[in-house]
């Protein structure tokens, strides 16, 4: 830095012509101590070298307009999304989730051409000529474990990862604001959850269309609907499954505020998920199961009824909302007063 | 131990600090009153700290490792909640003050998979008062200022320790700052890097920015600060201008000579007190005497003067004088 050229702020307007100054590498001790010429700190004309018409310049004062605050929120969210969607680990997760429906489709296609009517007969029969069905099949295959893994990785990393890396203290000193940061982190995880859901839906849809060409869709209840209506129902399912992932993200985010080890929050979420599955498998614990989050995950198949089972979807969404409110509050309660010592 | 606040009579005390502070701000950049932090587990890291950091000063926050410097800085930045006491930064509530404060806390921390430039963009995005439109230019300026322009596009993972430290300082310089808080900015730097940081701090201070810099290296603070506070086990030992801190301690003159006895006699005749003879050298309190006259007197008496030096009291002497202890690690 000693040899770096530095610009002196030359006052409004004369900015571009800011003088270049060179700092000496070695500063004589006497000079540092006593004879530094000081000027009194003046009220900062923030970014005085901005275009004259620009008003506030590069920084906004303490009493910034609300519009700018909102802009700043989207900017931080944009930064968060860029970080998430450029991170190789997260992209690998999305890629894996995109590949599974393809493998599933190919497997079923092979089964349908060889097996005829074996045990798989039911599913395969259902699928042959039902190109959209692969999407629902992929969801039911992935929604209980692989998709939650991907979402937990991002949401569990949200606070704990920053704490572990030490970047949390610099974000908060910036100052990002605890509430703002938590909100941005959560929205980011929700967007990622929907991205995961969309990736599964889109690759499954494309694979289905390629491998099982067919016009109409036969529903679980036996009735047949058009492809257009089928696509609509896929959209409905994506909305529902995405909301399920958002609820899971709230749990992972809450755990993330309790630790500086991201892997701990991620593993903790997955352990909770597995415990829920175990509880669901124990008949004696049946009264509890309606309150467990994963119980609602597979209820997206309400869209495959005729007419659509809106009651089941609504109940599911309500329980997701309850989970989000509960774990969001836990996350806030913990994070707002937490001592950041990492 | 009661903290001593020294109001200096030396020239720095008269410096035009805070002649025209921004509206709504007090004349001090940082004020703490009884600031205390007790960690869970009972450890009192900071104990009833009363600091006053004048605007425009380069304020050295000194203390052995573990004396509570980082804990104090974390409280000032709102990262940890004080157990007791209050503080003021730039006379504003913390949320409003922080955009005007650049900080380096306990070493650099960045995203290893991002470039230096992308890292700065990330932290700039976190500041709600920073505008995106000017971000590129401000980042380029900050990188330029710390001499990192050439490595701007390189991943942080591949930065050397010195480069990381520079990037952290660049992050603290992203906006127009009224206060810079630097926690051990020269940690891990080689002597050249240390000199560079010192020069940068001096340059930033010359622009009117208050610099609050912590260090466990006394000599470093002596070389760049106008004011200093010394911590010991979470308590403030003393604070004041550098001049006033060592004002109570007298400079010594040290003479290297083979003729120790003869030299001692001459110094005594000159009226110097506290003459102490050693092997091949002797020291005495300089008092009001001029060193060149002492030298002339010695040479006139045919004492073979091999070396002559004025030893000014160091902050370390001040610390030892006040605490009676060495400047080592605190528990
Ligand atoms: N998170 C923590 N929990 C418990 N004790 C801590 C914590 N952080 C620091 N301390 C203790 O507080 C004291 C002051 O630490 P610190 O402020 O880091 O000192 P310094 O920065 O002056 O080296 C030390 O004794 C340290 O062990
Ligand atoms: Mg420290």
UniProtKB/TrEMBL annotation, chain A:
Keywords: Membrane, Transmembrane, Transmembrane helix
Bias type Basic and acidic residues, positions: 34-47
Keyword Protease recorded: no
TM spans (from-to): 91-112, 132-155, 186-212, 232-255, 262-286, 317-335
Listed GO MF terms: ABC-type transporter activity
Renumbered residue ranges of the record's region Disordered: 1-60
GO CC list: plasma membrane
Taxonomy, superkingdom: Bacteria
PANTHER family given in the database record: INTEGRAL MEMBRANE PROTEIN-RELATED, MEMBRANE PROTEIN
Protein name: ABC-2 type transport system permease protein
From TrEMBL, chain B:
Keywords, ordered alphabetically: ATP-binding, Nucleotide-binding, Transport
Skewed-composition ranges (Low complexity): 13-24
Gene Ontology MF terms in the entry: ATP binding; ATP hydrolysis activity
Feature: compositional bias, Polar residues: 1-12
Superkingdom as given in the UniProt entry: Bacteria
Sequence ranges assigned to domain ABC transporter in this UniProt record: 30-258
Residues spanning the membrane: none
InterPro entries documented for this protein: AAA+_ATPase, ABC_transporter-like_ATP-bd, ABC_transporter-like_CS, P-loop_NTPase
Region (Disordered): 1-24
Pfam family, one: ABC_tran
Family: Belongs to the ABC transporter superfamily.
The protein's name in its UniProt record: ABC-2 type transport system ATP-binding protein
Organism field: Nonomuraea wenchangensis
Organism lineage string: Bacteria, Bacillati, Actinomycetota, Actinomycetes, Streptosporangiales
């Amino acid at each position: 830095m000693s040899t770096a050229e530095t610009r002196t702020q030359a006052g409004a307007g004369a900015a571009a012509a800011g003088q270049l100054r060179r700092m000496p590498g070695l500063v004589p001790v006497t000079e540092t101590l006593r004879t530094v010429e000081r000027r009194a700190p003046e009220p900062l004309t923030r970014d005085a070298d901005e275009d004259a018409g620009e008003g506030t310049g590069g920084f906004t004062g303490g009493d910034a307009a609300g519009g700018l605050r909102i802009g700043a929120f989207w900017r931080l969210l944009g930064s968060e999304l860029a970080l998430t969607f450029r991170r190789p680990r997260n992209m690998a997760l999305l890629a894996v989730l995109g590949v599974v429906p393809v493998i599933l489709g190919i497997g079923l296609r092979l089964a349908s051409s060889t097996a005829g009517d074996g045990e798989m007969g039911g599913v395969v029969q259902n699928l042959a000529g039902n190109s959209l069905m692969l999407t629902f099949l992929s969801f039911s295959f992935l929604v209980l474990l692989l998709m939650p893994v991907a979402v937990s990785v991002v949401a569990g990393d949200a606070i704990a990862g920053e704490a572990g890396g030490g970047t949390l203290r610099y974000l908060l000193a910036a100052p990002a604001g605890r509430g703002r940061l938590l909100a941005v982190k959560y929205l980011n995880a929700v967007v990622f959850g929907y991205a995961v859901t969309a990736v599964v839906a889109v690759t499954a849809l494309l694979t289905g269309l390629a491998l099982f060409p067919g016009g109409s869709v036969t529903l679980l209840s036996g009735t047949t609907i058009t492809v257009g209506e089928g696509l609509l129902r896929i959209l409905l399912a994506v909305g529902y499954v995405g909301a399920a992932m958002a609820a899971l993200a709230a749990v992972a985010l809450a755990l993330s505020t309790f630790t500086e080890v991201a892997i701990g929050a991620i593993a903790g979420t997955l352990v909770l998920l597995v415990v829920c599955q175990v509880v669901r498998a124990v008949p004696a614990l049946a009264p509890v199961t309606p309150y467990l989050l994963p119980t609602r995950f597979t209820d997206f198949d309400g869209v495959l009824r005729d007419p659509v089972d809106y009651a089941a979807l609504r109940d599911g969404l309500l329980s997701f909302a309850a989970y989000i409110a509960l774990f969001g509050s836990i996350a806030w309660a913990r994070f707002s007063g937490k001592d950041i010592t990492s | 131990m009661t903290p001593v606040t020294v109001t200096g009579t030396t020239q720095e005390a008269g410096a035009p600090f805070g002649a025209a502070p921004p509206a709504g701000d007090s004349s001090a950049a940082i004020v703490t009153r009884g600031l205390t932090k007790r960690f869970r587990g009972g450890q009192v890291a900071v104990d009833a700290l009363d600091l006053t950091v004048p605007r425009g000063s380069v304020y050295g926050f000194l203390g052995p490792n573990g004396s509570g410097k980082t804990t104090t800085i974390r409280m000032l930045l709102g990262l940890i909640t004080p157990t007791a006491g209050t503080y003021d930064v730039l006379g504003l509530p913390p949320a409003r003050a922080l955009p005007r404060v650049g900080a380096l806390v306990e070493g650099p921390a960045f995203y290893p998979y991002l470039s230096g430039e992308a890292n700065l963009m990330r932290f700039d995005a976190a500041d709600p008062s920073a505008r995106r439109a000017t971000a590129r230019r401000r980042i380029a300026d900050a990188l330029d200022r710390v001499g990192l322009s050439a490595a701007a596009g390189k991943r942080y993972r591949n930065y050397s320790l010195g480069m990381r430290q520079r990037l952290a300082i660049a992050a603290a310089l992203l906006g127009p700052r009224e206060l810079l808080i630097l926690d051990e900015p020269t940690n891990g730097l080689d002597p050249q890097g240390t000199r560079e940081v010192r020069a940068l701090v001096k340059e930033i201070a010359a622009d009117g920015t208050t610099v609050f810099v912590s260090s466990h290296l006394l000599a470093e603070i002596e070389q760049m600060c106008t004011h200093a506070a010394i911590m010991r086990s979470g308590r403030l030992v003393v604070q004041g201008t550098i001049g006033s801190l060592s004002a109570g301690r007298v400079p010594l003159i040290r003479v290297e000579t083979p003729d120790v006895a003869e030299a001692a006699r001459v110094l005594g005749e000159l009226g110097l007190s506290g003459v102490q003879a050693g092997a091949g050298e002797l020291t005495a309190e300089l008092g009001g005497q001029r060193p060149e006259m002492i030298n002339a007197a010695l040479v006139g008496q045919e004492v073979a003067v091999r070396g002559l030096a004025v030893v000014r009291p160091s902050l370390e002497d001040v610390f030892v004088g006040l605490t009676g202890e060495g400047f080592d690690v605190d528990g």
